Protein: DUF952-domain-containing protein
Amino acid sequence: MPAPLPLPTYLYKILPSAPPSPLPARLPLSDLDRTDGYIHLSTSEQVPGTADKFFGKVSELWLLKIKYEVLAAGTDGDGEVHADKKAEVRWEEVGRGCFAHLYGADLGIGNVQSVDKIEKSGSWAKSLSLE
Structure:
């Protein structure tokens, strides 16, 4: 599936609990990411719906904010582009839209721009304001 146009500036990884601080070069994969074989990511427009659907019962989330161009370049969690790995972002159709999936790389200090804690006030759609 082709990437959306225009391409997003940022992609987000939603976490139900705080990541280690400081971020390591390789964050542990969620059970879902490990099972599926890729890291699930969302655009700013997709984050509220994804949060409501999969994290509706929690009162706080952590968002990893990642520049799309950094992931598209194949940058791994350690900040390097490894010639022996095929790190790539693939846009794939999932029931309710086209989502970014990161294959062949990890998230970590080298490719995550920021970590933000978000507290829920009503729904996630009302609590999240992303660019």
User: Anything to note?
Assistant: The chain has a mean pLDDT of 92. The chain has four helices and six strands. Residues 90 and 101 are 5 Å apart (CA to CA).
